[in-house]
Automatic annotation (TrEMBL):
The protein, known as: Aminoglycoside phosphotransferase domain-containing protein
Boundaries of every Aminoglycoside phosphotransferase domain copy: 235-433
InterPro entries according to UniProt: Aminoglycoside_PTrfase (IPR002575), Kinase-like_dom_sf (IPR011009)
Source organism, top-level taxon: Bacteria
Taxon lineage: Bacteria, Pseudomonadati, Pseudomonadota, Gammaproteobacteria, Chromatiales
A Pfam family assignment: APH
Length: 524
C-alpha cells in the first residue's frame, strides 16, 4: 500500500493564500501537488491511496483525474491525528498489504529514489518549525522526537517505508495515535535506513511553501527565469521584448511603483540574449488561485476591487496626448487578421479537423463580426497600460489584499517602446481569465465534445464572473459587450502563439467560438 497522507487541511496562514485545501491539492506549476507526488512514487509497484478530509468537496475534475491515474480516495473523519489517520486508512483499504509506504501530503522530493526496504527520509531542517528531530539512543538505535528545532538539525522529512505495517499500527495505537512515536516504536524493533539524498521540498508551511514552489517554476519556451532567494532575472533571445518590459518598469510614475516589484537591474544585452532583474516576490499568481484554489466570494470581491483601483490609478496618470489612438486600434481586428492569415492553410486545416466553423476564411469572418461590437479608441480609453493584464501576471498579496504586476508588454503595435494604450485591452485580458477561462486551458483542465468546450467548477467560476462584472461593467467605464468582443479576438489571435501545443490550440479555437456565440447571444 502506498499512502499519500492528506487528510487534514493546510494551516490557516497558508489557507489565506489559496483557500481551505488539503495539502496534496496545493497549486504547483500549473498542477496539483498530488500529481508530482504520484510521479515520484511511480517506481513502487503497489496501489496508491490518497487520503482527504471527509468534509472536503473533491472537485469533479480532480476525481476523474485521480481515477485515470488509478489512485483510490480514502475519506478520513475530520480532526484525526496523523497516526490515527494512517491506521484508519490501513483498515479502510480492506487489504492486508505486505508493506506500507507513506508520503506526507505536503512533501515532495527532487532527485530522490524511493526504496523497497525499511526506510525513512531525513534532511537538514530549514526554518523554525516543530519537526520530528532525529536523535540517537544509547543502543545506537534512532529515536524521533517532535519538537522545535534549529536550522541544520536532521529531521524526518516525510517519506516512510515499512515492511511490517502491523508493527507500525501497534506502535501508533500504543502511543495514542501519535505517528512519530509509532515510527520510533517500529525503529526499535526493525532496522530502518535513513535516506538523505535528493532535495526536500516542504509545502506545509507558508514560508517553505513559497520557497519550495520557487524551485518548480513554469516558463514559456521563449523566456528563461533565473530565480534566486530575492531576485528573478528574466532573459530572452527577443531583445526588444526585454527592453520594452524593463522600460515599462522604469517609466512608471513613482507613486504607481507600489504595484510592481522593484526593478533591480535594468536592461542588459549580450550577443545572443537580453535580460533584466526584479525582486522575486513570494506570492501566488491569480491564475493558480483561480484554477486550483478555494478562495471565498468575498476574497474575490477584494481582489477585483484592488485590480479595478490599480487600473483607475493607471488611467489617472495617463497623458492622452502620448497615446497614438490609431496604433491602439491595431490591437484588435488588424492584429487578429494578420495572425490568422499567417496561420491559415495546411496548419489550420490539420488543427481544425472536422470543425466547420474553422475552415478557411471563416475565422477571419468571425473576427470581423466581433470587431463591429468594439467602438473606436477614444481619448477617454487611454491610460498607462500593462498590455498583458491577465491572471498569470497578477500576483496576489493576501496581507494587503493587493496585487503586484509583472511581465508587462511595454511596446506598441510597431514594436516601439510605449507605456500608453487603450485600457479596455487590459480589462479584456483580465476578463479572458474569468469569462474566457484562459488559465483553465493552460492548466489542461477542460473537456472537448465535438465543437463544444467545457470547464470544471462551472458554478463557482460563473459566480466569480458575476462578481467581476459588478465591479468593472458600469455605464461610465467599461461595456461588457465590447470586452467580450475583444475576448473573441484575443483567443483567435493567441492560437498561432501556442504552436508547441496543438491540443491547447484546439481548445483556444473552440473557446473563441464559445465566446463568439455568447457575444451573439447577448443580442438575441
Amino acid at each position: 500500500m502506498i499512502l499519500i497522507g492528506s487528510a487534514a487541511y493546510i494551516d490557516q496562514d497558508l489557507a489565506a493564500e489559496v483557500g481551505r485545501l488539503p495539502p496534496a491539492f496545493l497549486p504547483i506549476g500549473n498542477r496539483r501537488l498530488y500529481e508530482y507526488q504520484i510521479e515520484l512514487l511511480s517506481t513502487l509497484d503497489h496501489r496508491v491511496y490518497l487520503s482527504i478530509p471527509e468534509s472536503f468537496e473533491l472537485p469533479v475534475f480532480d476525481a476523474r483525474r485521480l481515477e485515470a491515474m488509478e489512485v483510490d480516495i480514502i475519506r478520513v473523519p475530520d480532526g484525526m491525528t496523523l497516526g490515527n489517520s494512517v491506521v484508519y486508512c490501513w483498515s479502510a483499504s480492506g487489504v492486508a498489504f505486505p508493506s506500507l509506504t507513506v508520503l506526507h501530503g505536503d512533501t515532495l522530493f527532487l532527485d530522490f529514489e524511493p526504496t523497497q526496504a525499511d526506510s525513512l527520509s531525513a534532511h537538514p531542517n530549514v526554518g523554525s518549525y516543530r519537526r520530528a528531530r532525529v536523535a540517537s539512543s544509547s543502543c545506537r538505535k534512532r529515536r524521533y522526537e517532535s519538537e522545535f528545532v534549529e536550522d541544520g538539525q536532521p529531521v524526518l522529512s516525510g517519506y516512510f517505508r515499512f515492511s511490517n505495517p502491523q508493527l507500525l499500527m501497534q506502535g501508533i495505537l500504543q502511543n495514542r495515535g501519535d505517528f512519530i512515536s509509532g515510527v520510533s516504536h517500529y525503529s526499535v524493533q526493525q532496522d530502518m535506513e535513513e535516506i538523505g539524498s535528493g532535495q526536500w521540498l516542504d509545502f506545509g508551511h507558508l514560508n517553505s511553501f513559497f520557497t519550495s514552489r520557487s524551485m518548480m517554476t513554469t516558463q514559456r519556451a521563449f523566456n528563461a527565469l533565473d530565480i534566486g532567494p530575492r531576485t528573478v532575472t528574466k532573459s530572452s533571445e527577443n531583445k526588444a521584448k526585454m527592453k520594452a518590459e524593463s522600460n515599462w518598469f522604469r517609466s512608471l510614475p513613482p507613486k504607481l511603483r507600489i504595484h510592481v516589484p522593484p526593478l533591480l537591474s535594468d536592461y542588459t544585452e549580450s550577443e545572443k540574449a537580453a535580460s533584466y532583474s526584479i525582486e522575486y516576490l513570494y506570492l501566488l499568481p491569480l491564475s493558480d488561485v483561480l484554477v486550483f484554489g478555494a478562495m471565498s466570494r468575498t476574497s474575490w470581491q477584494h481582489i477585483f476591487d484592488a485590480s479595478h483601483a490599480i487600473l483607475e490609478e493607471l488611467r489617472a496618470a495617463a497623458n492622452p496626448r502620448c497615446c497614438d489612438l490609431k496604433d491602439a486600434e491595431h490591437l484588435y481586428l488588424p492584429k487578429t487578421i494578420e495572425r490568422l492569415r499567417a496561420f491559415e492553410g495546411a496548419q489550420l486545416e490539420s488543427l481544425a479537423g472536422t470543425l466547420k466553423f474553422a475552415k478557411g476564411s471563416n475565422l477571419r469572418s468571425i473576427a470581423s463580426i466581433a470587431s463591429t461590437y468594439i467602438a473606436e479608441v477614444a481619448e477617454a480609453n487611454t491610460a498607462i497600460v500593462h498590455g498583458d493584464f491577465c491572471f498569470s501576471n497578477l500576483l496576489f498579496d493576501s496581507r494587503t489584499a493587493g496585487l503586484k504586476l509583472i511581465d508587462p508588454r511595454g511596446m506598441d503595435s510597431k514594436n516601439q517602446l510605449c507605456i500608453y494604450g487603450d485600457q479596455r485591452y487590459d480589462v479584456a485580458k483580465m476578463y479572458h481569465s474569468v469569462a474566457g477561462r484562459y488559465d483553465f486551458i493552460i492548466a489542461g483542465r477542460y473537456e472537448i465534445n465535438g465543437e463544444d468546450i467545457t470547464f470544471p467548477d462551472e458554478t463557482r467560476v460563473a459566480d466569480l464572473e458575476k462578481v467581476f462584472e459588478s465591479v468593472f461593467f458600469r455605464p461610465d467605464r467599461f461595456d461588457k459587450t465590447e470586452i467580450l468582443a475583444i475576448n473573441v479576438l484575443l483567443f483567435l489571435s493567441m492560437i498561432p502563439l501556442h504552436a508547441d501545443r496543438p491540443d491547447r490550440q484546439v481548445a483556444m479555437l473552440l473557446n473563441a467560438y464559445r465566446l463568439y456565440r455568447k457575444l451573439l447571444g447577448t443580442f438575441q
